Amino acid sequence: MTSRGKFITFEGIDGAGKSTHIRYCADLIAASGVELVSTREPGGTPLGEKLRELILHEAMHLETEALLVFASRREHIAQLIEPALARGAWVISDRFTDASFAYQGGGRGLELVKIDTLANWVHPELSPDLTILFDVPLDVARARLDATRELDRFEQEKADFFLAARNEYLRRAAAEPARFRVIDSSQSIDAIRVELDAIVAALLAGAA
Ligand SMILES: Nc1ncnc2c1ncn2[C@@H]1O[C@H](COP(=O)(O)OP(=O)(O)OP(=O)(O)O)[C@@H](O)[C@H]1O
Ligand SMILES: Cc1cn([C@H]2C[C@H](O)[C@@H](COP(=O)(O)O)O2)c(=O)[nH]c1=O
């Protein structure tokens, strides 16, 4: 019987370096011969990508925003994540529900109990096997973003928003130490890769 794949999520405030390191981890995992699906939220499906455009670029009520990220997630789980895990593939996702707690909860101030309710409705039985949190001071993240691209609706938020989002991420990591690995993302890319090598090696060894 095929064993279920592993679900690994990458989190952090904008500019923490997730996207850079996801590509590196994806290559490490794929090189081991495991079937790997690399995806992102909001998005990951044709409908989810349309919702992503709205979420990132249209002004809206904060509860509308929360409902849309979970609508995108529902589709993502049904169309891509669950089928992949069920056939034994590993899934790595650039963000998942921890981002809703950090951004809609911490950043925007939506009551965490409402996010809990949505999470329990949309994925009562699905939780990442491992979450890698790229933690970085706000000024470092901001400098990286400013150097690279046009900013979306979230990336244009003020320092208070990102401070609250970062704190919520760290609070969640402290509450679930077995699931989270926190990486100091102000280090050089090479230093972070050394940490990621060890994390991925342990994951692959556990799955062998
Ligand atoms: N450790 C690092 N040191 C220096 N620069 C870095 C580091 N990590 C990432 N960068 C650079 O910072 C920029 C933002 O990185 P990246 O797009 O990976 O961030 P991100 O966390 O995925 O952001 P977002 O969540 O907004 O997509 C890129 O130009 C990347 O090369
Ligand atoms: C899943 C999820 C994401 N967001 C926000 C966080 C980011 O600012 C954007 C996605 O951009 P990225 O460059 O691809 O990281 O969406 C959110 O607010 N809530 C969520 O649940």
From TrEMBL:
Pfam families: Thymidylate_kin. One of its GO terms (cellular component) is cytosol. Residues 10-193 form the Thymidylate kinase-like domain. It catalyses: dTMP + ATP = dTDP + ADP. ATP binds at residues 12-19. One of its GO terms (molecular function) is ATP binding. SUPFAM superfamilies: P-loop containing nucleoside triphosphate hydrolases. It is an enzyme of class 2 (transferase). The keyword ATP-binding applies. It comes from the Bacteria. Its EC number is 2.7.4.9. One of its GO terms (biological process) is dTDP biosynthetic process. Keywords: ATP-binding, Kinase, Nucleotide biosynthesis, Nucleotide-binding, Transferase. PANTHER family: THYMIDYLATE KINASE, UMP-CMP KINASE 2, MITOCHONDRIAL. Phosphorylation of dTMP to form dTDP in both de novo and salvage pathways of dTTP synthesis. NCBIfam families: DTMP_kinase. Belongs to the thymidylate kinase family. This is Thymidylate kinase. It comes from Pseudoduganella buxea. The gene is tmk.
